[in-house]
Design goal:
Two copies of one chain form a homodimer.
Chain A: H1 7-17, H2 20-23, H3 34-52, H4 56-61, E1 65-67, E2 70-72, H5 77-86, H6 105-118, H7 120-139, H8 142-153, E3 157-162, E4 178-181, E5 187-197, E6 206-215, E7 226-231, E8 233-235, E9 241-244, E10 247-252, E11 263-268, E12 274-279, H9 285-321, H10 342-374, H11 378-413, H12 425-432, H13 442-455, H14 460-479, H15 482-508, H16 513-518, H17 520-549, H18 553-570, H19 574-589
Parallel strand pairs in A: 3-6, 4-6
Antiparallel strand pairs in A: 1-2, 4-5, 5-11, 5-12, 6-7, 7-12, 8-9, 10-11
Keywords (chains A, B): FAD, Flavoprotein, Oxidoreductase
Function (chains A, B): Involved in the assimilation of dimethylsulphoniopropionate (DMSP), an important compound in the fixation of carbon in marine phytoplankton, by mediating the conversion of 3-(methylthio)propanoyl-CoA (MMPA-CoA) to 3-(methylthio)acryloyl-CoA (MTA-CoA).
Family (chains A, B): Belongs to the acyl-CoA dehydrogenase family.
Chain lengths: ~600, ~600
Amino acid sequence: MSYTAPVKDMLFAIEHLAGIEQVAQLPGFEDAGLDTAAAVLEECARFNEGVVAPLNVPGDQNPSSWKDGVVTTTPGFKEAFAQFAEGGWQGLQHPQDFGGQGLPKTIGAACVEMLNSANLSFALCPLLTDGAIEALLTAGSEELKRTYLEKLISGQWTGTMNLTEPQAGSDLALVRTRADRQDDGTYKIFGTKIFITYGEHDMAENIVHLVLARVAGAPEGVKGISLFVVPKFLVNADGSLGARNDAHCVSIEHKLGIKASPTAVLQFGDHGGAVGWLVGEENRGLEYMFIMMNAARYAVGVQGIAVAERAYQHAVQYARERVQSRPVDGSIKASAAIIHHPDVRRMLMTMRSLTEGCRAMAAVAAAAYDASHHHADEQVRKDNATFYEFMVPLVKGFSTEMSLEVTSLGVQVHGGMGFIEETGAAQYYRDARILPIYEGTTAIQANDLVGRKTGRDGGATARAIAAQIEKTEGELHASGSEAARAMGERLAAARTAFVEVVDFVVSQMKADPNAVFAGSVPYLMLAGNLVAGWQMARALLVAEKLSATAQDAAFMQAKVATARFYAEHILVRAPALRDEIVHGGASTMQMALEAF
Amino acid sequence: MSYTAPVKDMLFAIEHLAGIEQVAQLPGFEDAGLDTAAAVLEECARFNEGVVAPLNVPGDQNPSSWKDGVVTTTPGFKEAFAQFAEGGWQGLQHPQDFGGQGLPKTIGAACVEMLNSANLSFALCPLLTDGAIEALLTAGSEELKRTYLEKLISGQWTGTMNLTEPQAGSDLALVRTRADRQDDGTYKIFGTKIFITYGEHDMAENIVHLVLARVAGAPEGVKGISLFVVPKFLVNADGSLGARNDAHCVSIEHKLGIKASPTAVLQFGDHGGAVGWLVGEENRGLEYMFIMMNAARYAVGVQGIAVAERAYQHAVQYARERVQSRPVDGSIKASAAIIHHPDVRRMLMTMRSLTEGCRAMAAVAAAAYDASHHHADEQVRKDNATFYEFMVPLVKGFSTEMSLEVTSLGVQVHGGMGFIEETGAAQYYRDARILPIYEGTTAIQANDLVGRKTGRDGGATARAIAAQIEKTEGELHASGSEAARAMGERLAAARTAFVEVVDFVVSQMKADPNAVFAGSVPYLMLAGNLVAGWQMARALLVAEKLSATAQDAAFMQAKVATARFYAEHILVRAPALRDEIVHGGASTMQMALEAF
């Protein structure tokens, strides 16, 4: 199935919801207005549609393979990655000082979506490299930056994040990899890391591993973790490659999905110790890791949107072609394409509205990120940072959970053919299943939302968002159209439910932490549903206005219909989540452990 | 992962919800009381735990394979099937006249669940054979019965259902397979059938295909379809096998799941015509097919329960063993098994309560089936048949849809390990995905529920069920315990929502069929959720009473806790479905077709 990037919808979100013209007023982004966005997205669409998307099925059928420590990627991946690097796509959002293009996240996020729609497995390599770049930019010494950044940003080398160990997944306090200080200021690294995405491959000359480890004598738990750069090949002073480092891929995993992306077990130090360089200061590794992690979490949320979009396109195409049964309303007197059947429409509209809602939410979060880094006014930066931080678990958690629903519906639309691998719908279902797990499971995102993002400020950020939503409800009321009225009603009910949950979380956090955390994932699902719905409400208002005048009336009418569907089919789920959270804590924890 | 049949919970449902002692008062079932049920279930558990379950992972890793028309099943399958036949398991629910054991469905359904929990792929062969047996029992001539039934019931031969063709899936009006009448009373069959489960294999001497086809001159559409028996090997007068029939397996599918179950493309008549024998009368094939289909639909619903149970057990075991992070309530001052974490508990309880709720619903439906066939009083038979017919789309549709949720949560509980195939959790996720598709997609079940089961009698059956539920609410109110109160409140809200939807369906069916059918799947999900919840409410009442006196107080307390969880986390979803159905029809159909 070919992929067509939804450039029009992306630009709608970038222009009308994220407000690209305000982003273009930020210092450093003067050239990043709507025209730039349109030009970049068009070029990005061409590249991904033409070069990367055709490798998606081959990657699934002929995954990365391992032999004697060497990983060979799917034929075509290496060449496509060379084109990716050549096109400057790795550096899109990175500083011009190191060869990047310095574009805002508001534009970059749409490009990340396209790359992931085209090929989730392929896109993971740049995604992890982005994380490594962020960490080095934030905490790396000048020497580390000089040695690595240009080559990472150009796509000549790639990066990885080495967190997980067999006994330490969500719980990084259990990390055991050891770093021994050497006299020359370097460290020798010893340990085993698992689940290392693109931990070994043949697409780049060098791989720059960012590795969490403990220095001898460090405090126990997460406060004793440091971050190291451990390159696959040591780098000479002139930038050329030196000796092979003692970091070896001993196997790759046999996975449910994203099969083309090699998931490596890396062994550090089996032959005397891998040479590592400290990033920043000792014992501050977790802090730096969260920088990589936060960038990666947002990006994984975008992966959810991306795979949902691809699954939607695949399902629409099938629904247009597959002829089966007469329409129930008698409008066609013969067997018709299944897209005429109400239940198929319900499935497609669910897929579409969830995808567009999450895309809009991610775009708005990206604009806040840009303002949080570039705005001249400190308070504005801070406010935007607070908003963005609140959005990260929603973008990651809600968009990835919704991608499970959307890719499952994608299979269902295909009927029996959906279960046949050659059809292609099943690949999205399999690929998507990792998204609510890696870079922090949905529960980890939800704990973050409950603890750091809601509990810590007593619910202030959450209530501020609710107040903004209430303003949108006022605008919907003022519009008065049937669609706006329907949206306003559902948005108000969902927002009310959200505020009740925030009150519950804040008031019960200390008194009954089990009940609060039993409701954490439902809270995340409620918040994500609401915020995405809020953006659909804003989209509806814009589209109603523009549908009267725009050249593109059909697009605007479709946006209104999609937003209204979101209100009446997705936002309506919110009150049930409230009930589950506020009243369901006790029954979650009630049954005796032995009875399971 | 080993499998332990939930015999205790099955017997609880059989005794207290399905009412096995009433079933044992039906003519023909005098020996089928609780003791028999317990003895059969214990024996069945032993067989499935010991023989069938260990083949589940091997079947996935080393699936059925095709070469030159011959299908070789996974090593061990043939031997296990011989033991299955030897044990008399195929004949459990079939008439003693033909060598069966004539046990009620109330007992048989639990055995079907065990077999499917043990191995979904393996269990499909007997499942399809059951359908063939039902069709022959109902409509086969004496000669056909004499020729085939004993050997099918003994497990010496197996059966298949040949409905689907490339252009005819849900829409059987499009069937093109041709049957040419011969002078000797047989027919020559020509055509291609796809998605034929166990259409070819090496586990039995002969395969008895039941095939839908059109006789020359038959009316168009579904009224011109006839049903034929087309054996793989012709059967001599003495019952021995004769010539190979012209029905050949030209390929098997490469599927997302249930990989050990060969899904065949069968070519009939490429070498002169396959010999077929008419079942019943010409042009009544669809009617007979529905007999097979209804048995199979119920059984597929049980497959959903079965795979959910297996996924639950797998997840519980992992959650007990995997140590990660400290409990949020401070109850343990070190990293603890993840089963201590509220969100893991929420996932496990969701899995458990959905599984138990659907098991209870299926058990009650089975008892109605038994009464509908065996009760002495015609009106009682009729009432039970009506109830059972209403239940079939719920058992099939809701239990299979819930199995997607449960198996997905099963992966999630495992975190990153869930995505690694060797862990085994992913297999359930893949296997389950076919269940809401085959034997009629969820939409097909929902159309049946809306049209034949609700619209046709003006909602009478649905409202009668609602009235029964209201009685249970009264009993919950009378009980007065906190759990009963919570359940009563949620049950009443869900029942009210259900009745509103029934009113909507009945009143709008002609005026706005698109809106009604746009809400058909949500209606099915609401009805299934409610009826399963109703059974959990009944279970709660029984368990509360027994927990004071029973030896097995721990089991009874767990049942109360699970029922309450169901009320507060699953039943609460009902009002949102009502909103979606009653208010969401217009927005489902609003967007222009070109805009997709």
